[in-house]
Design goal:
Residues 1-177 form the FAD-binding PCMH-type domain. By secondary structure, the protein is α+β, with helices and mostly antiparallel strands. It has three domains: 7-53, Uridine Diphospho-n-acetylenolpyruvylglucosamine Reductase, domain 2; 59-173, 2-Layer Sandwich (Uridine Diphospho-n-acetylenolpyruvylglucosamine Reductase, domain 3); 180-290, CO dehydrogenase flavoprotein, C-terminal domain (Enolase-like, domain 1), CATH 3.30.390.50. It is built from twelve helices and twelve strands. It has helices spanning 14-24, 37-42, 78-82, 85-90, 92-98, 104-109, 112-118, 124-132, 149-152, 228-234, 241-254, 265-290; strands spanning 7-9, 28-31, 50-53, 63-65, 69-73, 135-140, 143-148, 166-173, 180-186, 196-204, 210-218, 225-226. The strands form three sheets. A five-stranded antiparallel sheet has the order 4-5-8-6-7, sandwiched between helices. A hairpin with a 5-residue loop joins strand 10 and strand 11. Helix 10 (228-234) runs antiparallel to helix 11. The N and C termini lie far apart (56 Å). The mean pLDDT is 95. The structure holds flavin-adenine dinucleotide. Residues 29-37, 54, 74, 101-102, 106, 110-111, 113-115, 117-118, 123-124, 166-167, 193 line the site of flavin-adenine dinucleotide.
Length: 291
């Protein structure tokens, strides 16, 4: 099918994009990579009156490291992150996760901002943002504001962005060099959306006891979640299979997965345990590699 008719605008700056959206009213939409929005238009599941095309807003296409963060412009393409050796060196978990997004053609066009605003709970960027508690920088008609990841996401395909607001940048805190991180995903075929995924970040003291544990997952609940019960189960424990098995049990216990065509709730709950154990095991191996 073809989309319904819409007006088209091509701003050159973020401020101009926000102005144009306000001028066209609440039925207008920003267009980034188009990988989620254009299929919806084609199927007429969305029919915006105007598209404000962000592709000429080059000020949003950057990504760079500061001493503490990976700073990613909303228009940065998945592929730019995937192919940057500095990201692989300083944020290996992010590089690992991005390789799972669709196929090369999708990663060439799809943007980090578009993925986070679309807020598909199985998207790799949503899991990373929750794990690292990324900061979202937002520009609206009344100025700029920032939100933490837990405040930004608002359930399935929903965010707390106000009408008329543009996501401009996302800041991902860098893990310390002694932190072991990993991203693990289960999908039927490479490139499919994840059935379940988990990201883990582990720190240990000199005696191999876990001092800090962060875990986030998709497929464990209707939205992306931090696995706080599993994190608690790990703190103070010697790093190793026994602690990981207990953490996986805690994650399974807390999981409230949504049954779908990939499996019923029981099957999906078991998957949560599997991906948590795998992510923790890989993260622990990387602590050893770093030391
Ligand atoms: P668009 O489609 O252009 O926009 C999506 C939504 O976000 C729209 O509502 C738009 O108005 C809004 N928007 C975009 N940018 C902004 C902004 N800066 N501020 C405010 N609102 C904005 N994704 C995954 O994560 N994992 C996968 O495995 C995966 N597989 C895919 C497989 C296929 C076949 C396809 C077609 C897509 C897949 N995707 C996957 C989705 C892909 O990652 C998209 O790039 C992403 O979801 C949307 O990004 P986009 O830049 O294309 O945004």
């Amino acid at each position: 099918m073809k989309p319904a008719a819409f007006a088209y605008e091509a701003p050159g700056t973020a401020a101009e994009a926000v102005d144009l959206l306000a001028r066209h009213g609440e039925d207008a939409k920003f267009l980034a990579g188009g990988q989620s929005l254009l299929p919806l238009l084609g199927l007429r599941l969305a029919a915006p009156t105007a598209l404000i095309d962000l592709n000429g807003v080059t000020e949003l296409a950057h990504h760079r490291h500061t001493p503490d963060e990976l700073v990613v412009g909303a228009l940065c393409r998945h592929r730019d992150i995937e192919l940057d050796p500095r990201v692989a060196a300083r944020s290996p978990m992010i590089a690992e996760a991005v390789r799972h997004i669709g196929h090369v053609a999708i990663r060439n066009r799809g943007t980090v901002g578009g993925s986070l605003v679309h807020a598909d709970p199985s998207a790799e960027w949503t899991v990373l943002a929750m794990l690292l508690d990324a900061t979202f920088v937002i520009l609206g008609p009344s100025g700029a504001r920032t939100l933490g990841a837990a405040e930004f996401f608002d359930g399935f395909l929903a965010t707390t962005l106000e009408p008329g607001e543009l996501l401009t940048e996302v800041r991902f805190p860098l893990a310390s060099p002694t932190t072991g991180t990993a991203f693990v995903e289960l999908a039927r075929r490479h490139g499919d959306f994840a059935i379940a995924s988990a990201a883990a970040a582990l720190e240990t003291d000199g005696d191999g006891r876990i001092t800090s544990a962060r875990l986030a997952a998709s497929g464990a609940a209707p939205a992306v979640v931090r696995l706080t019960a599993a994190e608690e189960a790990l703190r103070g424990r010697p790093v190793g299979e026994a602690a990981f098995a207990e953490a996986a049990d805690a994650a399974v216990e807390a999981a409230e997965p949504t049954p779908d065509l990939h499996g019923d709730a029981e099957y999906r709950r078991r998957l949560v345990g599997v991906i948590v154990r795998r992510a923790l095991t890989r993260a622990a191996e990387r602590i050893e590699d770093n030391s």
